UniProtKB/TrEMBL annotation:
It comes from Volvox carteri f. nagariensis. Residues 43-118 form the Cytochrome b5 heme-binding domain. This is Cytochrome b5 heme-binding domain-containing protein. PANTHER family: CYTOCHROME B5 REDUCTASE 4 (PTHR46237:SF1), CYTOCHROME B5 REDUCTASE 4 FAMILY MEMBER (PTHR46237). It comes from the Eukaryota.
Amino acid sequence: PVSASTHNAFPQVPLEKGYTQVDWLRLSKSGTDLNGLGGKALRRDITLEEVKKHHTADDAWMVLRGKVYNIGPYMRFHPGGAAILLKAAGKDGTSLFMKYHPWVNADALLEKCLVGML
């Protein structure tokens, strides 16, 4: 097994009550608008220039493996804290994601946050 001492693990931060991964799964199944498209599953082609405009805590998009996600709703649920996600906001965060989470299925985790394809 890979341990935090031998892997590039980012330190976990204490999460607020109601912001665990189980809470995220509940929210993602609730029908809440997580992609910021008004509840529509409108998946479209997006340029990197458009992604770059979404780089703040209030408006954060990130590219993972060619898919563009609105990560704003997920920030408070992220075990590593919002700060590390903000490093990839408005950018292609694939290499950062793979450094810390190569085993995580981002497509499943962020499915409802999908905005489009790069």
